[in-house]
Amino acid sequence: MKIEHNGTLMRIYVSQSQRRGHADVHRLIVEALAEAKISGAVAFLGIEGYGRYNYVSSANAVDAYVDLPILIEAVDDDDKIRGFIPKLESILDDGLVTLERLQTIFYRVSDVAD
After folding, report:
1. What is the pTM of this model?
2. Where are the domains of the chain?
3. Domain 2-107 belongs in CATH node 3.30.70.120
4. CA gap 86, 25 in Å, rounded
5. Is the pLDDT higher at 41 or at 61?
């Protein structure tokens, strides 16, 4: 079965070293997205990147301090994504968030229950 749907993609850019207390910020965000019942989310570990301070961090660096970028993507209806922003703001002190409209196409076996 093919299901087409319009939604919103939220991209959240953070760094690997970001913490809130003793917890990793990226993990807290993904857990909060799941708790908010956002349709789906994934966190990607980047191999190289830089942020606001223009310090390039790379997995190939021989530097003792490597702070790799993490990208979290979440997809759902626009109102659910925008409704999550206040929770995100309570977790995230430093980062970048982008939103973009998208069309999703799901391919599902019709006789399998969700």
Report:
1. 0.85
2. 2-107
3. yes
4. 15
5. 41
